[in-house]
Each structure stands twice: as C-alpha cells, then as structure tokens.
C-alpha cells in the first residue's frame, strides 16, 4: 500500500471548506495548525491509489482563492503502521478505501498530478539525454555487429527512451498540446542522434547483414508488433501504479533502439533496402507503443480535470489514435502481402 502525505495550505476562511471535503472523502489520519499569516496547514495521510478524486475536489473548491497550495509527498514509512482498510459491507466491494466516491479505475493508480510530475521530469532535450542516447546507440551497434545479445541488452538498459514516448501518450490523453510537442521533439531528437551515430558507424565499419541480430530486425512481423503493444501497455501500467519503470523501459528500448541502430548501420553501409526494412520496423514499433499507451491510459481512467480540457483531449486522442492506427494497419497490410508473396 503506497502512502502519500497530503498538505493543504489555505487561507483561514477556506479551512471549513477543506475540512468538509475531507470528511466526505476520507477518514484518514489528519493534522492541522494555523500559521501566523492567518493561513492554515492541513495534513492528511492517505493511500496513493485513489487519491485523485479528493485532489480534484479540493482544487475545484479552492480555485480562485488566493494563497492556496496543495502538495503531495511520498511517504517511505510511518509508525504506527497504517492498517489495510476493511471493506464496508454496506458499500460495493470495489469501493476504494481512500475515498467514498472514487471510481474503480482511479482507485487502482496514482493521481493525475503525480503522473504529470513523473512524465514532465523525463521530457526535454537536455545534453544528458542526447549524450546517453548516443552512447546507448554505440553500445547497441557494437552488440549487433558482434552478435552479442548481452551487449544489446546493456544498450537497452541505458537508453532513455521510455520517458518521451510515455509523455506523448499521456499528453495526448489529457490534451496537453505543449507537453505533447515537447515530448515529440525530445523523442525525435533522441531518434535522430541514435540513427546518426549508427549511420556514422556503418560508414566506418564493415556490416554483415546476414548476422542473426541484424537480419532479424530488417523485416516487420506480427511478433514484433505484439511485443511493442505489450511494451506500451506494460509501461503505462507501471507508470500509473508508481512502480519503478526500469525493466519496462528496457521493454520499450527493445522495440525501438536495436532496429533503429540496425537501420543506421545498414544505410551507412549502403544497404538501403535492408535499412529501410529496419526503419519500417522502428516505425511500426513506435506506432504500437503509442497506440497501446493511449489505450491503457484511457482504460486507467486518466482524464483532464475540467470539461473544456476534456473536449480538447477527446480531439487530440481521436486524431492520435487515427494516425497511429492507420500506420499499424498499413504495416499489417504490408506484412500480409509479403506473407502471401512468400
């Protein structure tokens, strides 16, 4: 049971409103004291999963009130321990313990605001991101050329590709256009660096296209697309539960980094047909990851707070799903044609 410490800083005239909302939503332990500036600090210890409805209600109630602030902090431990809440026999079994009106889907994940913070931290074309992506591409190319699976896995461990791709899906779901643009630029910059490094290595080194590690990444197959769909869904599930995403990041890198590195090596070596095949695999995996990511965010009940943001999010989601679905369908047709020809 992940715990969070909720702090609400509010002018004294708004404290009754906060206490009323807390009384309605949770019976979790709480403390408060009044500051010298006539404001009140209220602290509540609650579960991370299912906290979103309470945060939303507080934000709606305090919106427009000058000086309010809501802070959510992770709790490593507390003594005495917080016992697992027992279900109320008068309530439906799926009723979350943190609040009395949360939907079942929001009770299974961390809040939207935590997701915003987590995703935002991984977005931005920083020097560290570009250098780490370039180094991971070098390692991936070395593994492909040496046909060393362990080296390829090492490249995927250090590749920072999870964050930007999850940010694209999240921004689409909540209709945050600015975050979506930033995430797309970050993802595109990383892909360009990884591909450019691989092309340079392909120009400088001899590339054997018959090697198993390279050859397996020059065509698009149903298995590759299934892997990418699973990686996208698993990444979002891990993100929304607040679980460390290291291993899931490797899954995303499996779908993106090796085929992109193989494409660069082959094109740098002048083997354009095979290189384009590897690029198609990369595009297919990218489309599947984002399609699965958007679908999983929606299934987890991730939505904007206000109705006008919701309308914008619906349009953005419809457009993104249509684009990614068309890419996937086109590639499925290509795979089917090749299978029929073979």
Quick overview:
The protein is α+β, with helices and mostly antiparallel strands.
Structure notes:
The chain is α+β, with helices and mostly antiparallel strands and 342 residues long. The protein folds into 2 domains: 106 residues, Alpha-Beta Plaits (2-Layer Sandwich), CATH 3.30.70; 229 residues, no CATH class. The chain has a 4-stranded antiparallel beta sheet, covered by helices on one side. Helix 6 packs across helix 11. The chain is elongated, with a radius of gyration of 24 Å. About 4% of the residues have low confidence.
Which keywords apply here?
single chain; 342 residues; alpha+beta; Alpha-Beta Plaits; 2 domains; 4-stranded antiparallel sheet; elongated
For the record, the count of structural domains works out to 2
Poorly predicted runs: 90-103
Count of helical regions: 12
Assembly form of the protein: single chain
Q: Tell me the Rg in angstroms.
A: 24 Å
Query: How many beta-strand segments?
Result: 4
Nearest-integer average pLDDT: 84
Tell me the major beta sheet. Answer: 4 strands, antiparallel
């Amino acid at each position: 049971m992940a715990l969070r410490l909720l702090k609400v800083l509010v002018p004294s005239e708004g404290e009754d409103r906060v206490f009323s909302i807390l009384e309605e939503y949770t019976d979790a332990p709480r403390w408060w004291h009044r500051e010298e500036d006539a404001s009140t600090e209220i602290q509540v210890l609650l579960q991370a999963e299912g906290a979103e409805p309470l945060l939303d209600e507080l934000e709606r109630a305090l919106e427009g009130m000058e000086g309010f602030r809501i802070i959510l902090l992770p709790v490593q431990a507390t003594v005495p321990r917080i016992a697992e809440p027992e279900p109320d026999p008068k309530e439906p079994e799926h009723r979350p313990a943190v609040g009395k009106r949360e939907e079942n889907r929001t009770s299974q994940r961390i809040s939207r605001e935590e997701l915003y913070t987590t995703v935002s931290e991984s977005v931005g074309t920083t020097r560290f991101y570009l250098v780490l992506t370039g180094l991971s591409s070098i390692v991936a190319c070395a593994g492909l050329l040496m046909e060393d699976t362990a080296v390829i896995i090492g490249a995927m461990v250090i590749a920072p590709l999870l964050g930007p791709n999850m940010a694209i899906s999240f921004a689409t779901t909540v209709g945050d256009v600015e975050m979506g643009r930033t995430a797309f630029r970050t993802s595109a910059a990383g892909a360009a660096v990884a591909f450019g490094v691989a092309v340079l290595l392909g120009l400088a080194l001899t590339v054997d296209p018959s090697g198993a590690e390279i050859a397996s990444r020059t065509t698009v197959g149903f298995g590759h697309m299934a892997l990418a769909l699973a990686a996208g869904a698993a990444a979002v599930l891990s993100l929304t539960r607040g679980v460390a995403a290291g291993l899931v990041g490797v899954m995303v890198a499996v779908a993106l980094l090796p085929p992109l590195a193989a494409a660069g090596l082959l094109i740098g070596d002048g083997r354009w047909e095979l290189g384009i095949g590897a690029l198609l695999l990369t595009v297919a995996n990218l489309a599947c990851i984002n399609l699965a990511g958007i679908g999983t965010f929606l299934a987890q009940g991730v939505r904007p707070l206000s109705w006008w943001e919701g309308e914008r999010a619906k349009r953005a989601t419809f457009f993104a799903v249509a684009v990614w679905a068309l890419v996937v369908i086109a590639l499925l047709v290509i795979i089917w044609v090749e299978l029929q020809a073979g």
